[in-house]
Amino acid sequence: MKNIDTLLNQALEQARLCGADQADAMISQSESNSALVRKGVIEGIKHSEQLGLGLRVFKGKKLALISSNDLSKEALRHCAERACAMADALPDSPYDGLPEASPKKLDAHAVDQLDLVDRETALDTKSLVEQAYEMEQIALDHKNITNSNGSSAGYGSSLTGYASTNGFQHYFKRTHFSRAISVVAGHGEAMERDYASHSALHFSDLRSIEELGREAAERALRRLNPKKPKTASLPLIFDRRVSPSLIGHLVSALNGAAIVQKTSFLTEKMGQDIFSPSVTIEDNPLRLRGLGSRPFDMEGNHTTHLNLVENGALKNWLLDTRCARQLGLLSNGHAVRSYKSMPHPGVSNVTLRPGSLSPEQLMNDVSEGILITEMMGNAVNLLTGDYSRGASGFMIRNGKIAEPLSGFTIAGNLNDMFARLEPGNDLFIEHIINAPSVRIDGMTIAGL
Fold this sequence. Notes:
Blueprint: H1 4-17, E1 22-38, E2 41-59, E3 62-68, H2 73-89, H3 110-114, H4 125-140, E4 145-164, E5 169-185, E6 192-200, H5 209-222, E7 232-238, H6 244-254, H7 256-261, E8 281-283, E9 306-310, E10 313-314, H8 321-326, E11 335-336, E12 344-345, E13 350-352, H9 359-362, E14 368-380, E15 386-397, E16 400-413, H10 414-420, E17 422-423, E18 433-434, E19 438-446
Parallel strand pairs: 7-14, 13-18
Antiparallel strand pairs: 1-2, 1-4, 2-3, 4-5, 5-6, 7-19, 8-9, 8-13, 9-10, 11-12, 14-15, 15-16, 16-19, 17-19
Helix pairs in contact: 1-2, 4-5
GO molecular function, one term: metallopeptidase activity
Domain Metalloprotease TldD/E central: 122-224
InterPro entries: Metalloprtase-TldD/E_C, Metalloprtase-TldD/E_cen_dom, Metalloprtase-TldD/E_N, PmbA, TldD/PmbA_N, TldD/PmbA_sf
């Protein structure tokens, strides 16, 4: 493949020659390898490669996007011609366009400081198979673990480059490692399954094979012989494995597109207290080795740490340039896209900061409640905040975890849930959206 800078420059130059007033180009290259083992037998070996370039052209107030997997000079010329012809035929899009101010030059060390690339580890297929096989064997060695849904290991790398006619041009690389396993406990109709997984940019940060295999087995065994709870209003503890989904609903409600369209239950709540004062939620695209870290967004804006919620109060929307203009604001560097899509608001590394209480302390005064460890379905209305999901977990009695539960629904409204949310102190950074265990009182349980 040609030099990344050369390809980006060629795309922009062809856009200018075809009559574009402004243009930007994004290039994406990735490679991934994975192995899946089930019951000691290799069930899948996958290798994929992807390379593509997306070109946006602006002619007056008109806009068009075209993408291609052929990056030859002739192909880029055809892309530019077609994109400009498409723009001529489309209606005006007055809020689209490159950022008004020319972006500052990115510091030469900005990418390296994020440490997104593991330069010491590259795994071959044999190594991936061995990891998956060993992890499964560790889980299957537990008494009463009777089957496996599969054990997998993966490795990949990617490159993302962006350039625009207002002077910005840069790219960054990242590596990615993953392990996952799902097993079954019990026999006949009394079977339960559970899983464990982890992803990291550096191989040395990946949770061990032993830890993941053991966790999957122990979680499945704990779920055997579940009961169905009675319908009631109870305090719930959301395990840190499921609590990020609650913050995910907040992120969706803060998306600039939802605010512009007035389809978010938080549209009129900027500056208001929506959580207790103990809650701060941040998005940090500059986190060291963060899964979503990036030095710039996909409009060439530099990225910075942003508090979405600070001491309980709503502080910021998630904005790209288009949404910001519609709201009379400035972009806060949260434009994301693939090379095939238009920019839209998104997140990088979202974290609900931990509180002071351990999970045990969160449930210490709960005479009767439920620990939620898994949720299913997604009946969440972001216009009203109404919330309803299937769930499973464990009964809490007198501050202690009791029998396993399944087959029930939890319901409430996100406005009330956020206001009553109390974070624990067991934060572990392992996803794009991270949160410790949280407690929410007064949730409706639909069971027996």
